[in-house]
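User: Structure with iron/sulfur cluster, tokens only please.
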Amino acid sequence: MPPDIACGRLSDDMLARNFADAHPGLTAEQAALEADRCFYCYDAPCIEACPTDIDIPRFIKAIASKNTAGAARTILQSNILGGSCARVCPTEILCEQKCVHTAIETHKPVRIGALQRFATDWQMAQPAHPFKRAAPTGRHVAVMGAGPAGLACAHRLAMLGHDVTLYDRHTRPGGLNEYGVAAYKLADDFAQKEIDFLFAIGGITYRGGTTLGETVSLATLRQEHDAVFLAIGLSGVRALGLPDESIHGVQDAVAFIEYLRSHPLATTPVGRRVVVIGGGNTAIDAAVQAKRLGAEEVTLVYRRGEATMSATEVERDWAQTNGVTLRLWAAPIRLETAAGALTGVTFRRTDPPPLSGTPPLAPPAEFTLGADMVLKAIGQVFIPDPIARDQILVENGRLVVDEKGRTTLAGVYAGGDCTAGEDLTVAAVRDGREAAKAIHDDLTLTAFSLSGTGAP
Ligand SMILES: Cc1cc2nc3c(=O)[nH]c(=O)nc-3n(C[C@H](O)[C@H](O)[C@H](O)COP(=O)(O)OP(=O)(O)OC[C@H]3O[C@@H](n4cnc5c(N)ncnc54)[C@H](O)[C@@H]3O)c2cc1C
Ligand code: SF4
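Assistant:
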């Protein structure tokens, strides 16, 4: 059968419905009822579990007392991307997992994410920005990469009175918030609305279409600015290592999602039978979005069991309720082709070894899934090429930083996915905020600058 990859499998109406906001916001009444469930715990475990240390009981109490402005301020002063984090954070493994309600009620934590969205959405509908800039410091910082880490760093630096030039190779800022996260999590162009809100602080100049290592070097940035923050994320994707991997129909899941996030849905091609290979949130997002674009069969195949999948249980349930079939313990060994076209993927079962004392399993069986499209989601990697000429330490595939976000090169800081850590939006925001504080301290308290002789 010839491969069947096509655009517009569903009507515009159906596509609009499939990609609408997956979890619409709470009404004021719902928010008040939910806020009333909070115990306002002393030493609240939910705060401990939030990478950006939002004072959760404080903002929930503000909502309960109808002080939505105060709630928003509490959230945004810790996490300026609190609106997108409210939508994309896996709260089930962060704040909500630790909520004391899970221990004493029937596993229903306070809906912290939904309440956070309620407060930040209110704030973003107001005409004025909630924070003011400090007096100008006369210092200028380059932020390279306009994803969550770069945006959080730029905003905090601007608040502290520094001038910031925010560079990115893409024309639009936002990083994976704009090009990676599933469309139904950040519906209605939310990523750009949040950036407009964030830029309203002033003092941030955006220069899209600037590629580190191509149109500008780190050496030039160091010469032209008082400090540099690198937030260039992970630009590479792992390959399956199979022959014919470049054949039409075999695509990186991240590229597939980027295409659908930056083009009209009706012009995004999708196969009739799609196989997604991987076990993380990228695999889940690619599989669900392929299904919602109109693919008839979507199978997600992961080489081990559920316990080692990085996709959370909530994400796995979401995939299954969206009609995605999960097949575990199988690894791809061959792409099947006919007349130069993709027809399927053959897998070998990778069942765990039998427990001692039980008879050995039969030799690993193989099975083939027919496919017009194969989406690879087996991990992203940091590509060090843009900084290859600079004396900056990369270890275990990530930029090395100290606890303040300083790299080994004087005046150069880094954070987000390009450094070691959780690879979550909220962790990138924390890194950007913390690096901004360190840059501020280093520039103002120690009068350090790039013209100096080394990192303080
Ligand atoms: C498909 C997908 C779905 C995800 N879904 C979720 C989710 O639901 N929830 C969650 O918490 N996390 C999710 N994540 C992870 C989250 O998006 C990242 O952890 C977060 O975006 C990291 O932020 P960052 O700023 O470090 O990097 P990025 O968001 O990757 O931003 C890096 C920026 O640097 C730019 N850049 C790269 N190289 C250069 C260069 N040489 N020159 C100039 N600019 C450059 C890029 O264009 C980009 O704008 C997802 C990731 C993927 C891939
Ligand atoms: S742990 Fe739960 S109940 Fe306690 S403060 Fe946090 S959200 Fe409220």
